[in-house]
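Technical appendix A lists one of the benchmark inputs used to test multi-chain prediction within the project. The record comprises two sequence entries:
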Amino acid sequence: MITKLIKEAKKNNIELEVLTNLYDVTSIEVLNGKLKKFDINRDKAYSLKALYNKRKISLKYSDISDIPTIINRIKSFGDIIDNDNVDSLCENDYQAEEKKRVEPDYKQIKVDLINLCKYKEQYKDIVNIYFGLNLSNSSTVIDNENHHLQDSTTMIDLYSSISMSKNGVVKTKYLEYYDKEFNVGKLKKKVEKAIKDLELEFSATSINTAKHRVLLTNNVVNDLLYTMSDMFYSKQIYMKVSLLKDKVGKKVFSDKVTILEEPVNDKFVVNKHFDREGTLTYNKIIVDKGVFKLPLNNLEYAYKCGDKPTGNSGLLNNLHLECGKCSFDELLEKLDNGIIIDSIQGLHAGINHVTGDISLQAEGKLVKDGKVVKALNMILLSTNIIELLNNVIEVGSDLEEFGIASSSPSMLVDNITISGSEE
Amino acid sequence: MKKEIKEEILNNLLSTGADFAEVYEEKETSKNYVYLDSKLDNIDYCESEGVGLRIAKDDEIFYASSSSRDKDDILSLADSLKSNVNGKVIYNDVKLNKEERFTQEVNNNGYDEKKIKSYLQRLDKRIRKLDKRISQVGLRLIVTDKLINVVNHTGINKTEERHSTLMYVNAIFKDGDKSSNSSFSFGECKGLELLDKNIDKEIETMLKYGLDKLYAGNCVGKEMPVILGPGFGAVIFHEACGHAMEAEAIATNASVLCGKIGEKIASDKVTIIDDGTIDGLWGTTQIDDEGNSTQRNVLIKDGVLVNYLNDELNNRKLNMGLTGSSRRENYKYAPVSRMNNTYLQPMDDTIEDMIKSIDFGLYAIELGGGQVDPETGDFNFSCKTAYMVRDGKIAECVKGASLIGNTLSILNNVEMVSDDLKYDVGFCGASSGSVPVTTGEPTIKVSKILVGGEDSDN
């Protein structure tokens, strides 16, 4: 059907590329020792990139059998939109190595997750203990008249929430991470740490607004880096809405900050070998010792900005801060007197992408003489992303993967406002 | 799919002892007109269709979805689902009722692609002319048509047409190194007639706030009285207590409002209603995604919690009656109880009196988004546009302000409620995906909220 559509399009003076995404996701959710939900999602979607009448037209279908209607739609859109297309179709080929898919033992995973809920019996204050797991197999295929690319990925996404209640006060801890396969031992360790942290949170208080030396844990740095990653894109720079416009080649952050994207480094859970336009990906340095070296591109903005495409059309894969040499404990020692921020919420609304201002609800711990003395809640991380990344003292070595797009180590930062109101 | 095929799928799903079975079918087309840099940059067109199958046995729920509508593919999916259930057959030979169809009259006022483009061109020019400091204008028009059909083991067979139009207007302001953005949106379950709406006031307000924010200072971070502006200000109730009233959280004892029906949980000034029936509003539908009629649900009455938002499967545990609140983004998601159009009932306090009553506080005139943990009740929101209030007067515009607190404390701290009820549109994300919702609120004064900001003194 794809070949027929491409041929038919050509007859109508349309250059067409079809990206086919196939997903097969199985999800298991367990709450308090009982299966809560079992989900299977099998989906196929076709994204069409059409070049017609010097315009680029994007369409998405779940069914491409009605070829005449699709062709007519492309033509009618091509006659009315104004984009000055500078795009071209993919000129690469790629065929991923055939990997034998090992079907996980869902029944055993269900049993393992149900067994993990037994922490509820051990810790009487636990109200709810919940685990969710997605086993995803996806494949991406790109076809145009002359080229064909195919890649596939398999991964596990694990998420959990544990809530405890003491004297009518409820506290919840959330976990989420990605992995190549399900490892109950790894999850168990994370759950035990979460329970320990949760118990400490019942003594948590706020503090009055002041500037502090702050240790941001790896999950927090990851959240901030991923949320603000739009500033690295050529499109944002070209449109003059990036915080880093006119900054290529200039020092923008502390020299402790080196930011890389490594889509083809196989130490990560998922490697994406080409982007949504079929540009082959490669490992790259975006910020080198604080200097903004390389904006991320798709084909259109690579051309508009006179750069080479970087394989980042609709794709960010394994973006991370380069690790330093200090373990988390060594960062804690360097923090000496300050605050650990280990949770931030409200990222979709608490960050202004135009100004870089950050105002996020946070939780953490007060540290004196390198030791945790009490938990903190009802506090806000109030800063600006540029200020934050200029005040970096040290980057840790504890890189952890939190998603396909990005991962991060912890980071020690100076002179950051933590807002709050002590009772 | 034909009725007979759906009956066959339902009977197949029920053949291993499930006590609930449902087939949901959906077709959706959307056009997203992107007008950027004074050009119609693109029309992102999306056409999707698919099927969702759901079965339940006691407390366990099994869901499967596929973009294929081929009978064999769907029966294979049904086999994967029913293999999880093993028990005596409860329902067999399900026969569906005659299809009940809910239609929506749409008036496009003659807007075809050319006229839409011309509208966007005029609006872009009009905004750019307002001030030299406007450096970029972005417009997005999203037109969606959806057709859903839901059938289940009780014979329900209902179809609804859903049409909606949504417009986003965003302007970026620059002056030297300073920058700000200001935006507004309007959307309804209507056709393109929405584009004929008079938006003079919205444009004027966008300009004022954008310029004020361009020169805004830092917000002072501390606990203080806060006035919340009308409309999207209600997101604070949507997040802070709406989610905590959804059956998904209540039935699993994962809400701060569990077991509090009949209890006074808010000040007398608080009456909160979720109404999925208000004509044209962004969150309105005639039936929910389980095929039950939407309705007006009073959730909090004069400060007393009176109801939760309920769906079929959670109602098994709660047994409180259905509220027509079961929603899902699309066929890929199993539906759960969600909000539609949630608003705080207006009262008669005046904004002038609210401002006069504050020595030092914040006027959060426009809120951005936020989130809440329904289990703990802790919430956070960002302020899109905010001014300090000093000595009973509106003072300087401030940036980077956010509000954090706990559901129960904020509900009790609502001191004043005005009569300027306004509805705003938004999308709400939860376990059944992102669904269109309206938040409505008059201006209110809350006696204290922790405000986050960079400055520590006042």
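Chain B has two domains: 3-214, 217-452. Residues 217-452 of chain B form one domain. Comparable benchmark entries are summarised in Table A2.
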